[in-house]
Design brief:
eight-stranded antiparallel β-barrel, mainly beta, eight-stranded antiparallel barrel, 3 domains, 496 residues, globular, Lipocalin, 29 strands
């Protein structure tokens, strides 16, 4: 009996000692040890770009610019992941911020938008407003501002796809004078449709541009499938106009748009399959003018294998890395990042018009000053083999076939856009492109070198097949920045 009692006491003491050690580790004393108590800080959710994997080959300068553009001025709450950030300045005194985010703690979370205002009393940012939008797919979100109503008020537009593959547009209007308990922003439009949505922008009067008078508000067009038609390509255009009495965008008109009569089985094979539609897009597509003629100087080239989309107009080229494809009712919604301006993203909404034509609508969050105002929206016709040869001649500056010696090694340019640099027996491979930015100045052109561990842009002097001089540049939305590095001379290799 004594032995049993002794065993029980021993076990009890052992348990007490173990509990004491655990308590000491989990709850250290702050009384006599002189160690300051731990003050728990709010958890900071690092802004995460939803397509960060596509930026693995960024150089440090580009990565710094991109990350700066995605930095939230306040820590997000736990589970909130930043999708897009837009900085604004309403009063000229401080820069405020809109943040589009999704909440990982919610199943099929919609995209939310929140507003950070600067408080001059506390000299810090405060989160003053949050609202839900109709978008849900992070990789398709586009956030921008526009004077939609023509009265110089600020409208915040957020577009994107939802989980049903529908295009959505949510518009918030800034309230200029806040009354007590009044929200800083009011929703004036929320549109969902299984087709596409565009803002019908037009040039406003000179009086508006001079600030003397107000202008007309822009209408919004939404294209969706005609439910009363058996043809899958028949659409209905619904035009929304702003009603100043209700303070909301309301349907102004509805118009039937007949689609091409294509064998419906073939339509079903193309629509609803990312791979099938990407294969269908592969190659060259020429712009169709309003008169129905083909403009061979303006075209789009889709390259799903190398994941690139090339826009060309009168020798001016814009190349976008093909990041993501999202299936829509009538085709694909492609998101891309410009290979020269890493902060520029472009949404490309592509609809099937016929087996030989597509309709393209482009959404950009900003328009760089170094480019003109070329409008890419419209119909495109698939090119014939003869047209492809013509395009190759138009774009002959893009790729060359040449050997050069240089301080960074022997460079071999291949006509397919591939590149090899050999230095002290070490071989590096990559891709390259010669391109223009401004079609008004075709004498100035650039070279993009994309190697495994870097991507660099150079201003080029000289013409192939002669010697070339390369000067390192950084291209951004505000223009071209020249760091001032010494130029690199490319000398035609002997025997080439």
């Amino acid at each position: 009996m004594k032995k049993s009692f002794f065993s029980i006491v021993t076990i009890a003491v052992f348990i007490l000692i173990a509990l004491g050690i655990a308590a000491y580790l989990l709850f250290p004393s702050n009384g006599e040890t002189g160690i300051a108590p731990v003050e728990w800080q709010p958890r900071i959710i690092v802004p995460q770009y939803v397509e960060a994997a596509f930026f693995d080959d960024e150089n440090p300068d580009e990565r710094l610019i991109r990350e700066e553009g995605m930095n939230a001025r306040l820590p997000m709450n736990e589970g909130e992941i930043v999708v897009s950030v837009m900085n604004v300045n309403f009063d000229g005194l401080s820069e405020n911020q809109f943040i589009a985010f999704r909440n990982l703690t919610e199943i099929e979370s919609p995209i939310y938008i929140t507003y950070l205002d600067f408080d001059f009393e506390t000299m810090s940012y405060v989160r003053t407003w949050t609202a839900q939008t109709a978008a849900a797919s992070p990789g398709t979100v586009n956030l921008y501002t526009l004077d939609l109503l023509g009265d110089r008020s600020t409208c915040i537009l957020i577009s994107g796809l939802n989980y049903q593959g529908e295009h959505t547009l949510t518009v918030f209007l800034r309230n200029p004078s806040l009354a007590e308990n009044e929200e800083p922003f009011t929703c004036i439009a929320e549109i969902r449709i299984d087709g596409s949505i565009i803002v019908r922008e037009f040039e406003r009067s000179q009086a508006y541009r001079m600030g003397v008078n107000t202008g007309q508000s822009f209408n919004i067009s939404a294209f969706g499938r005609d439910p009363d038609s058996e043809n899958l390509l028949d659409q209905v255009e619904r035009v929304y106009a702003f009603n100043r009495n209700s303070g909301y965008y309301e349907i102004l008109s509805s118009t039937h748009i007949p689609g091409a009569q294509i064998e419906q089985q073939r339509v079903r094979e193309l629509l609803g399959s990312t791979r099938a539609f990407e294969n269908f897009l592969t190659g060259l597509w020429h712009f169709v003018t309003d008169q129905g003629t083909i403009n061979r100087d303006r075209y789009v080239y889709f390259d799903p294998i190398n994941r690139e989309v090339l826009f060309s107009d009168n020798d001016s080229q814009q190349i976008f890395r093909w990041q993501n494809s999202s299936v829509t009712r009538y085709g694909l919604y492609i998101t891309g990042q410009n290979i020269s301006i890493s902060t520029l993203r472009r949404g490309i909404d592509i609809e099937l018009e016929s087996l030989e034509s597509i309709r393209v609508r482009v959404v950009e969050d900003l328009r760089p000053l170094v480019w003109g105002n070329t409008i890419w929206d419209g119909s495109y016709r698939k090119a014939s083999p003869l047209d492809v040869d013509h395009a190759a001649r138009v774009s002959r500056e893009a790729f060359i076939d040449a050997h050069y010696d240089s301080p960074i090694g022997r460079i071999r340019f291949y006509p397919d856009g591939s590149l090899e640099i050999t230095e002290e027996g070490e071989l590096r491979q990559g891709r390259y492109t010669f391109f223009n930015l401004d079609e008004a100045d075709l004498d100035e052109y650039f070279l993009e070198l994309r190697l495994h561990d870097s991507r660099e842009t150079y201003s080029v002097r000289g013409e192939h097949p002669g010697n070339l001089s390369l000067s390192r540049v950084r291209i951004g939305a505000s223009g071209i920045d020249t760091p001032g590095n010494l130029p690199i001379l490319l000398t035609v290799a002997s025997g080439d």
